[in-house]
Every structure is written in structure tokens, then in C-alpha cells.
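Something for you to look into today, if you have time. Could you write out one complete protein record for me, on any chain you like? Leave the record below and I will have a look.
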Amino acid sequence: MNAPAWKLELLMLSYRYAAETGLQYDLAAMTEAEQYAALSWLRRYAEDRA
């Protein structure tokens, strides 16, 4: 099964966030809308860290 590109980006950014902060998202417990909102926040976080 192929995941949508945004879900793969979410996984990558959430792993990066966890590695940098020690905090993890429970992606399996989130709805798709919550996951997409988290992706938006993680994108901003990653841009600020770049």
C-alpha cells in the first residue's frame, strides 16, 4: 500500500522532531485531520530550524 506523499513527509518530520526534542507524536492515535495539522506545524518548526 502506498501512502500519500504528505503522510511520508509527516513521518519524516515527526522523526526529526523526536530526535531533536525527545518528544514524540502518537500518529496512530490521530485522525487524518489532526495529522495534517501536525504536519503544518512540523513544517514551520523545520523551517525555523533550517
Summary: The longest helix spans residues 32-49. The chain has a mean pLDDT of 94.
